[in-house]
Amino acid sequence: MKKIFFGLSLFAAFSVSSCIQDEPSNSECDIEQARVESPDLDILFFNPNDAVKDVPSSKTSIVFYVREDFTDSTLLETLPLRFKITPGATITPANGSPQNFRDREVTYTVTSEDKIWNRTYRVRFIHTIPLKTDLGFENFLPEKHNRFNEWFEVSEAGNAINQWATGNPGFAISKSSATPEEYPTIPWTENTVQGNAVKLETRNTGSFGVMVNMRIAAGNLFIGTFDVANALKDPMVATRFGLPFNKKPLRFEGYYKFRPGEKFQNRKGTIIEGRVDEPDLYAVLYKNTDENGQPVTLKGDDVLTHPNIVALARVPNPVHDFDNWTFFNLDFDYQQPFDRTVADTYGYNLAVVFTSSIEGASFEGAVGSTLLIDEVRVICEE
After folding, report:
1. Are β-strands 197-201 and 153-154 bridged in parallel, bridged antiparallel, or unpaired?
2. Is the pTM of this model over 0.85?
3. Pair 277, 31: CB distance under 8 Å
4. CB-CB contact of 280 with 313 (8 Å)
5. What mean pLDDT, rounded, does the chain reach?
6. Which of 18, 95, 159, 326 is the most buried (most CB within 10 A)?
């Protein structure tokens, strides 16, 4: 099985967090992790790991999802949270102090050790919002700096579900001058199946890519999160696949077009004659805890090989046809029995993943390889 990881992730290793990269280390002011401390975790959450949130450097909103059947909101009135913050920094309100999260969000401010920099975070608790599985890619907005777009789904109640991630934040570092249309993952409106589609294109990373020997950035879109801060320490951790799911997926279907780029190159930029680039499209269901009850999130190096994988649906031998939409309809291949009890407590994660170049882990592919995706569905057992 090929190792899957998007070449874009390592570019994130050169990213900045909220405080400027060139400043001394004691100028950092981030929350890295938030943890709920309460004797009533089993009342608040389906799983203990739901009480722990790793916080990407790009995010200042921290959301804890409580059980769908949670009703005793008085438990939220004096709830202590413990934060892991960057060394030397301080946080207000005090770390571990009880706060009232009932029907409101609480604002925390982290101040750097040198007292020059600070960052504000908003923390709230809401009921679990199930992932959407009818995926039309209709909803997207520019991120806060208007550099690229971010996709989301909308619940039946009209709430935004931020289930999609891309490697676009990493590309923003490699090519800060790029326009929104020049990013690897962008909206697409021409000759779609219905409404909007998404265009994933393998891009050249320019002089920056040559300097660090990372010359391409594959377009990608996946259910999960992309964490720029973790890429500073371990690039494989930057791409975190999957979010909690409570259904049994049966089939994976949708439409795509693919056109390989003209010249396939290896990481050194050498053209490999006769080599043709390929895309990848798949969906994975996996258990989100290990045998000891510790959280498990699949990443770039194990998303197709981890022993926690329960079921997989992956498009075989993708068709190279950019004139017509190709329909795929795949059964999930179950490698382990599906456990309804586990599902009812959101003990599974679902990941849906698309990329324009399958060998992003090695920064190999063809600039110009383009994958369009539209009207994707994960069909589940009723």
Report:
1. unpaired
2. no
3. no
4. no
5. 88
6. 18
